[in-house]
Amino acid sequence: MAVVLIGFMGVGKTTIGQQLAKVYNKPFVDLDSAIVKHVGLAIPDIFKQKGESYFRAIESELLVKFIDQDIVLATGGGIVENPNNLGIMKKNKLNIWVDTNINTVYNRIVGDSNRPNANQKSLDEIKKLYNNRISRYNEIAYIKVGNDSDVDSCVQKIHNQIIADDEN
Ligand code: S3P
Fold it and tell me: The pTM is what?
């Protein structure tokens, strides 16, 4: 079973996932990187040349491939856009929802040309997208952790909570 990191763009899923994979001594897979490798194009080029729906189809295909593996898996923030993915992820226990203050996130992602769903968007647009998605992250999350301080303490919080739940 995979430890799956979910949450909005720019909350630090990849960095946290890499650290968590070291703690659990499991391989780390970043779903966005797997999509880029599979298609042979960078994310903005996939969106431009093939469309977001193509990106979402490959994202789903690779989610199915990885979710039953014994790995730490970081997903893209839009994984919850596809209702089928919600069904697939609900069957997985350890979905860790990483969340950060949306204003902090906005400043991180607005200028990132590698994130077509955030690049040059207004704060209102990003907040709308975030608000649309939080109930879906909540629906499939096993635990929610804030990543408002540093990565190490966030990783520690996840680890502590998984251990505590194992003991009950
Ligand atoms: C997306 C989030 C990105 C990536 C793609 C679309 C989104 O992943 O999958 O740009 O719609 O939220 P990150 O959450 O790692 O930025």
Answer: 0.96
Q: What span, in angstroms and rounded, lies between the C-alpha atoms of 124 and 130?
A: 10
d(CA 167, CA 122): 45
Q: Which of 8, 9, 58 to mutate to test the pocket of ligand 1 (most atoms within 8 A of CB)?
A: 9
Whether 123 contacts 35, CB under 8 Å: no
Q: Each residue of 78-127: pLDDT tens digit?
A: 999 999 999 999 999 999 999 999 999 999 999 999 999 999 999 999 99
32 CA → ligand 1 middle, Å: 7
d(CA 64, CA 3): 14
- Report whether 17 contacts 33 (CB < 8 A): no
